[in-house]
Amino acid sequence: MELKKTDKMCVIGIMWFFWWWNVTHERPSLHPTISEAERTYIETSIGESPTINESKIPIPWRKFFTSLPVYAIIIANFARSWSFYLLITKSPKYFREVFGYNLAETGFLSALPHLVMAVIVPIGGQLADKLRKNTLSTTAVRKIFNCGGFGMEAIFLIGVGYSKTITSALVCLVLAVGFSGFAISGYNVNHLDIAPRYASILMGLSNGVGTISGMICPITTELLTKNQNKEGWPIVFLIASLVHFAGVTFYAIFASGEKQPWADAPEEAQCNWQPPTDLPAEMMHGEYGYADPTERKDNNLSFRRVSNQRNSSTDSNQFYTSSSRYTSGYNQSTVNEPLVNSQGYGYGETLSGTTKEQNVNPYHQGY
């Protein structure tokens, strides 16, 4: 039995879902094949830290809905989605009714605008990163690429609506979709600039609002072009252009490329929290509440005693190194063994010979 085109798309969608389910993970630290360098780079970029208790981080919904940079992204996404759904659902009908040309049967011409966009997007991304690194601020780069890309798309959408020949209509359509590829380096990555910790939530929020245009745009188009009314098509593309110009204006005024004050984890999630250890319960004893490093060694967490080259004869100058994954990001840093002092905790100031040293809680060093 031969599958219809829609059935094939459904099968591909199901296959993609299972593939996505298998390769995605909640956070970089949980990915089974990620390299240490890549994990550190990602976590540093998005602001994650082993000293932050994720369970104590509430989602700042009120801050989301009172932030103008967030609204700038949402409105830009809505504008882009309007033209996207218009071209996906109605461009074959436009070419058929206005020019008597069945664009859906010409696969290459149907795919050409999106093929051009696929080429433009990575080029725009590389150019945006280069400008951010050497010349302009992140805010300036985001506004230039978003407003420039959407502005040019809006102009060429008007050209599509008022074209008198199929050639000019196709050229304008290809240029419109192509320029929209530059805008991907604007609004579409702006979530990571303003709130890296909540970027996934903001992406879902802006995309959710953007899909509303997927309901409004087809209905509006059908009302304006019912009974194969050719005169309605220029109005359809003019509306799409005006929606883009509105999005460009709002984004140019209110968008930001700087991290927002509410994007950091609250103080209560950062204070006095220690990463869990992999030590078994029978090792968690001793005067200071953690295991004696000389007692045993297991696969997940091990300590080794090394001598201090300055004075190997004193216990106060002995060091320990940890291979725990919670300290791996600090490149096997060494810490002083805690000593008992007059305060009774071993983490205050002590005297070793004639040198005054500061002993540090090994779980707090480096944070």
TrEMBL record:
Q: Where are the transmembrane segments?
A: 68-88, 108-128, 140-162, 168-189, 201-221, 233-254
Q: Name one GO biological process term.
A: neurotransmitter loading into synaptic vesicle
Q: Which Pfam families match?
A: MFS_1 (PF07690)
Compartment list: Membrane
For this protein, the record's InterPro entries field holds: MFS, MFS_Na/Anion_cotransporter, MFS_trans_sf
Give residue spans, biased composition: Polar residues: 307-344, 351-367
Q: Report how it sits in the membrane.
A: Multi-pass membrane protein
Example GO molecular function term?
A: L-glutamate transmembrane transporter activity
Q: Which residues form the signal peptide?
A: 1-26
Region annotated Disordered, chain positions: 307-367
Please tell me one Gene Ontology term that the record gives under cellular component: excitatory synapse
- Keywords in alphabetical order: Membrane, Signal, Transmembrane, Transmembrane helix
| Alphabetized PANTHER family for the sequence | SOLUTE CARRIER FAMILY 17, VESICULAR GLUTAMATE TRANSPORTER, ISOFORM A
**What protein name is recorded for this chain?**
MFS domain-containing protein
Question: Which species is this record about?
Answer: Schistosoma curassoni
Q: What is the lineage of its organism?
A: Eukaryota, Metazoa, Spiralia, Lophotrochozoa, Platyhelminthes
